[in-house]
Amino acid sequence: MxxxxxxxxxxxxVLILAVLxxxxxxxxxxxxxxxxxxxxxxxxxxxLVSIQPLPPMDGMDGEMCEWVPxxxxxxxxxxxxxxxxxxxxxxxxxxxxxxxxxAQRDPVRVLRDSYALYSAVAxxxxxxxxVLTDENLFNIMVYDRLDNTPPSAAMSEPKRIxxxxxxxxxFQCGLYIDPASGDIYAVNNxxxxxxxxxxxxxxxxxxxxxxxxxxxxxxxxxxxxxxxELFLTIQHDNAVVVYHKxxxxxxxxxxxxxxxxxxxxxxxxxxxxxxxDLIFITNHGxxxxxxxxxxxxxxxxMRSSEKENWPLTQDKTVPGSGxxxxxxxxxxxxxxxxDAAPLRTITGPNAQxxxxxxxxxxxxxGEMFVANDAGDSVLVFRTSASGNEAPIRVLKGPxxxxxxxxxxxxxxxxxxxxVANFGNHTATVYKRTAAGxxxxxxxxxxxxxxxxxxxxxxxxxxxxxxxxxxxxxPN
Length: 475
Known about the structure:
Elements: H1 2-29, H2 76-103, E1 118-124, E2 129-134, E3 139-144, E4 160-163, E5 172-177, E6 184-188, E7 194-198, E8 210-213, E9 218-224, E10 229-234, E11 239-244, E12 255-258, E13 267-273, E14 278-283, E15 286-287, H3 292-296, H4 298-305, E16 323-324, E17 328-333, E18 344-346, E19 356-362, E20 367-372, E21 377-382, E22 393-396, E23 405-411, E24 416-421, E25 426-431, E26 442-445, E27 463-465, E28 470-472
Antiparallel strand pairs: 1-2, 2-3, 3-4, 5-6, 6-7, 7-8, 9-10, 10-11, 11-12, 13-14, 14-17, 15-16, 17-18, 19-20, 20-21, 21-22, 23-24, 24-25, 25-26, 27-28
């Protein structure tokens, strides 16, 4: 028995080796033909070898889901899509209902300054009035020039207020009064992109008498009455545009000052020295490089895509070229245009410039007055100043009440200096020669004494610092 069993194992082994040898021989032939093995010839693709039916599942009796053919009047995919759409519409409707309900809820509390914040000031000495723009509540407010708010009073009541949707008054930061007609020119900065002009007696929610569509980010305004030209600084695009004074609607500028050589860096205030044919511009210090190929052909490029003398916008600057440079005052010829370099620049630690905004010129005395916003001061320079030169006078201190000044105005008829203080609800007036920590001659106040200023004027977002339990609101 042991020998027979051993014999059978040997025969089986021989047969297995023979089969393997046959397969290996065909594989090694290399003639490109694949033989049939065990009665089947491989076809080079998947083939059905056998079928083994599965037994019915317990309790199901072999039932299957109904198959819906492609020719059915209600295709399966269409049915599924319809279900999803109806479900999505229901979800959207529910979400809209929740939003509508939330919009009707009363807030737990509100952070808001409900009083006027003065952003610009101009005096009409002929009619003995002072005009102030309110960037918080979007108004133009007219007061008697000699108004003086007593410490016990909540505020001074204006003689007239211009405000409302028809007026197109929003974030106003530049102001000019026509000395002959008394017309009020007011500049919108962050929205609207329209310079609005009102008659002297305008009041309430009335449309402007005249509008001029301006580049986005217009901030400062100055007018050269002798040459009937109107100058506007363009904050975001580092430019100055010049119009005919009576331009309106879609009229194009007659000159443009813009380019890398101009050294314009977030320009704000502007003033014209008519005696010396100069313009002075204050710069906060944000700058970007314009593409050289565009800059060299700026005039023809602009004429083909925008109005003539329209500024190149931020998308024409070199990505990553933005940087912050020291605040400055740049000085140009009154007729400067294109990529003209400044005649001189005032900048440096001695100058004390810290976000200089409004600017006014006394051409006869050769003096320049600057609202130094972040420095809580008014700086007075010689109009001939250059480089790292110190001011000849500084008006600053707690008695002066100067806080975040954004605009100054020289009333040379009455020898007075006016300051719009964005940081404490006041407009203050001084003798033109005031210096040091000098108390104002008069104060126009829009809120109760010591009412805090929240500084929330143009919030773009909000965040919560849970560690310090503080609300962060960038403007």
